[in-house]
Amino acid sequence: MAHNHDGKDKEVHYVGDSRVPQNKKKLYPKDYSEYPGNTEPFFPNFLLKEWMVAVVVLVGFLALVMAEEPPLGEQADPTNTGFLPVPDWYFLFLYQLLKFKWASGPFVVVGTVIVPGIAFTALLLAPWLDRSKERRPFKRPVATSLMLISLVAIAILTWEAEDEHEKQLASLPKGSSEEDVKIVDQNDPAYEIYKNQACVNCHGEQLEGITGPPLKGIGDAYSAEQIQHIMDTGKGQMPAGMFQGTPEEKRKLAEWLTKQKTGKPKSTEH
Amino acid sequence: MLKSMYEWLDKRIDITPMWRDVADHEVPEHVNPAHHFSAFIYCFGGLTFFIVVIQILSGMFLTMYYVPDIENAWKSVHYLQNEIAFGQIVRGMHHWGASVSIVMLFLHTLRVFFTGSYKHPREFNWVIGMLLFFVMLGLGFTGYLLPWDNKAYFATKVGIEIAASVPIIGDAAASFLQGGEVVGAQTLARFFALHVFFLPGILLALLGAHFFLIRKQGISGPL
Ligand code: HEM
């Protein structure tokens, strides 16, 4: 029986028939008294403290999980042309970069390869670009300020991308093209007004939309004032001043359009 | 009982030094949040690992229901989320965990950067860390497609278009990701394989190297 370091009998000594040499030196931890300050063993002492921090994070995380349902939109429909694509939030800054004039169109390599390429290569090679012995951030102003500038740039780009996306969503047509949403109250005299106006040429006899978007269910999204405003000033591809008639008729038409409700809970997906 | 089982094993295969080597090393005061509150910044690496473990476990449960084909992917997620007990919680953990792990990863990287811990002799571990960063971004990109809702579909389509616009390697990269003529069945199967087998495998291998180096080199000293 070989005796190992703690004096207990072990059968492990594999001499002759093994790759493990009998007298192989092992890494034995130094005595604790050889370390200065309040050092402590990794396991279990330190890991317990780190677990305390982890518990705080875990509680916060589970609160988030329980409070916020993970989103799931409508099933993917490749023929849907009106959908506004958006990547997950941590890719937004790269996505936004491609919207600059100098980083899109013929210069798109600037946005896809050159700028991210330089940034990530510099990050990857940081230990060789910043070779001084100094570790304190204030003592290496170039590295620190480059990183701070990048962080600010990332924050601004992310915020801009998010803001632009929100605005685009808000201006998207809100009517419904679904089969089961029907035109409401077709006997209302306002429907006659509608049919005699230019509206019908673009938005269709059943409000189903022709060159303009459908107006079925439009009452879920707009008030009568807002619809009158759209009639006066137009919107996107819709020209201004499409309504020709008395203010009274215009008000009636707008009010009738607000009656066009889908009767469904509002879809939040985009 | 447990003790004698352990001793039986230890006698034969001498396992004590293996775990003692991991457990018994000294952790210095300046990274211990119990001694200095500011030392919590040194916890971000461990917290990233903690969230990664949550991602792996919740992901394993998700694959018990998820079906990676374009007919059923969305339906299986919908079913999991709305019909299965705790399905929403498990999916929620994986969904929000993806964001939280990116946040933690980011904070950990900033801690290492601002404390200058990437300097000699830890250059190599920094490079491994950057590779970990890219693998995590890859996991985010491939995972985003899997629920197969409109958001997933169109974001991936745009992502692949952007990849295709890169000179020289763009077309190859795009057809590697897309797998077919359009973003469709083959893309989904491929993203599933990448997300569930390839990238986690690479991630674990890199993590092993990361931790091995930390153990070898010790944590960087106080500033
Ligand atoms: C999945 C991702 C990662 C995990 C789980 C992880 C985990 C860890 C852990 C537990 C430590 C010990 C110290 C601490 O907790 O701060 C550490 C140290 C370190 N990490 Fe990471 N890490 C990851 C990604 C990264 C990244 C992206 C980088 C940088 C590019 C990086 C660079 C380093 C370096 C250089 C050290 C040594 C720091 C020192 O000695 O002070 N790691 N990592």
Automatic annotation (TrEMBL), chain A:
Indicate the segments forming the Cytochrome c domain, all copies: 185-261
Keyword Cell membrane: yes or no?
Answer: no
Return the Pfam families for the record.
Cytochrom_B_C (PF00032), Cytochrome_CBB3 (PF13442)
What SUPFAM superfamilies would the database entry show? a domain/subunit of cytochrome bc1 complex (Ubiquinol-cytochrome c reductase) (SSF81648), Cytochrome c (SSF46626)
InterPro entries on file:
Cyt_b/b6_C (IPR005798), Cyt_b/b6_C_sf (IPR036150), Cyt_c-like_dom (IPR009056), Cyt_c-like_dom_sf (IPR036909), Cytb/b6-like_sf (IPR027387), Cytochrome_c550/c551-like (IPR051811)
Q: Where is the signal peptide?
A: none
What GO molecular function terms would the record report? Answer: electron transfer activity; heme binding; metal ion binding; oxidoreductase activity
Listed Gene3D superfamilies:
Cytochrome Bc1 Complex, Chain C, Cytochrome c-like domain
Q: Which residues form the Cytochrome b/b6 C-terminal region profile domain?
A: 32-159
Main location per the UniProt record: membrane
Query: Where does the record place it?
Result: Membrane
Ordered alphabetically, the record's keywords are:
Electron transport, Heme, Iron, Membrane, Metal-binding, Transmembrane, Transmembrane helix, Transport
The transmembrane segments are 51-67, 107-129, 141-159
Lineage: superkingdom: Bacteria
Topology with respect to the bilayer = Multi-pass membrane protein
Q: Which GO terms describe its cellular component?
A: membrane
Q: Which PANTHER family match?
A: CYTOCHROME C-553-LIKE (PTHR37823), MENAQUINOL-CYTOCHROME C REDUCTASE CYTOCHROME B_C SUBUNIT (PTHR37823:SF4)
Q: What name has this protein been given in UniProt? A: Menaquinol-cytochrome c reductase cytochrome b/c subunit
Q: Which gene encodes it?
A: qcrC
UniProtKB/TrEMBL annotation, chain B:
> One GO MF term, please?
electron transfer activity
SUPFAM superfamilies xref list = Transmembrane di-heme cytochromes
Point out the signal peptide segment: none
Any Pfam family the entry gives: Cytochrome_B
Q: InterPro entries this protein is in?
A: Cyt_b/b6_N, Cytb/b6-like_sf, Cytochrome_b_N_euk/bac, Di-haem_cyt_TM
What cofactor does this one take? heme c; heme b
Provide the coiled-coil residue spans: none
* TM region positions: 39-67, 96-114, 126-146, 191-214
Q: Where in the cell is it found?
A: Cell membrane
Q: Name the membrane topology term.
A: Multi-pass membrane protein
Q: Does the keyword Flavoprotein apply?
A: no
The UniProt entry's GO CC annotations, sorted and at most eight, read: plasma membrane
Keyword vocabulary terms for this entry: Cell membrane, Electron transport, Heme, Iron, Membrane, Metal-binding, Transmembrane, Transmembrane helix, Transport
Stretches assigned to the Cytochrome b/b6 N-terminal region profile domain: 5-223
Q: What job does this protein perform? A: Component of the menaquinol:cytochrome c reductase complex.
Q: Summarize subunit and interaction data from the UniProt record for this chain.
A: The main subunits of the menaquinol:cytochrome c complex are a Rieske-type iron-sulfur protein (QcrA), a cytochrome b (QcrB) and a cytochrome c (QcrC).
Descriptive protein name: Menaquinol:cytochrome c reductase cytochrome b subunit
What gene does the UniProt entry assign to this protein? qcrB
